[in-house]
Amino acid sequence: MKVLIAEDDLSSRNLLSAMLRKAGYEVLETLDGEEVWKALQKPDAPKLVILDWLMPKMDGLEVLRRVRAIESDRPPYILMLTVKTAKTEIIEGLRAGANDYLTKPFDMGELRARLEVGRLMIETQDALAAKIEELHRALGEIKTLRGIVPICAGCKKIRDDQGYWKQVEVYLKEHTEAEFSHGLCPDCKKRLYSDLSGDADQIPPE
């Protein structure tokens, strides 16, 4: 999975990048807030983000607010990693849209564990979105009949919206996805082929 690192400090960025690549992640490095914002607007933007608060050009909070202002069924999972440790600042970061918050200096094991939570959440979102898309496709292929359908009491033909009377199978084929095969019920066999009733082999099958 691809991870975006938003960190302007070279030493911290190199440390994070090396750790993530060792853990099997594909890493995209950014140096300031504007670069992060541009990267997250691309169609192939990483869904897992490690975001510093204090960055040149645009700080982490502003990046968060812009990202969360975009409606998406697959939003990125953003972990804010910062030197800001006050509870009011943590609350502010979470309210701005961070999924998680970790202060510097941090433990590598804890960071990997928190990223794993984010990875699992993203994979769950992707699986759910795929199921929803599959359901929409299935629903789009279904046609249903609603309301009152005028049907002749004698010949059983159905009147369509233009006033034409059609055979039941023709009407249903035009308004549903049903396929038809033809046969004869026992009553129709008896009525139509009564003279052959003694020879079962000559009576058409149901």
Report on this structure:
- With 206 residues, the chain is an alpha/beta fold.
- It has a domain at 2-136: Response regulator (Rossmann fold).
- It is built from 7 helices and 7 strands; from the N terminus they run βαβαβαβαβαββαα.
- The chain has helices at residues 10-22, 33-40, 60-68, 87-96, 108-140, 168-175, 186-192, and strands at 2-6, 26-30, 48-51, 77-82, 100-103, 158-159, 165-166.
- The strands form 2 sheets. It has a 5-stranded parallel sheet, sandwiched between helices. Strands 6-7 form a two-stranded antiparallel ribbon.
- α4 links the parallel β4 (77-82) and β5.
- α2 packs parallel to α3 (60-68).
- The longest helix has 33 residues, at 108-140.
Give me a quick take on this structure:
This protein is α/β, with parallel strands linked by helices. The protein has a domain at 2-136: Rossmann fold (3-Layer(aba) Sandwich), CATH 3.40.50. It is built from seven helices and seven strands; from the N terminus they run E-H-E-H-E-H-E-H-E-H-E-E-H-H.
Features:
alpha/beta, Rossmann fold, five-stranded parallel β-sheet, two-stranded antiparallel ribbon, elongated
CATH fold-level assignment of one domain: Rossmann fold
Number of strands: 7
Across the major sheet, the strand order is: 2-1-3-4-5
**Tally of alpha and pi helices:** 7
Main beta sheet: 5 strands, parallel
CATH C-level label of one domain: Alpha Beta
- Helix-strand makeup class: alpha/beta
CATH superfamily of one domain: Response regulator
Inertia-based shape:
elongated
- Percent of sequence in beta strands: 5-15%
Give the termini distance in whole angstroms. 58 Å
Looking at the overall shape, the CATH architecture of one domain is 3-Layer(aba) Sandwich
* Cα-based radius of gyration, to the nearest Å: 32 Å
Helix content: 40-55%
As residue ranges, the low-confidence spans are none
Mean pLDDT: 83
Order of helices and strands: EHEHEHEHEHEEHH
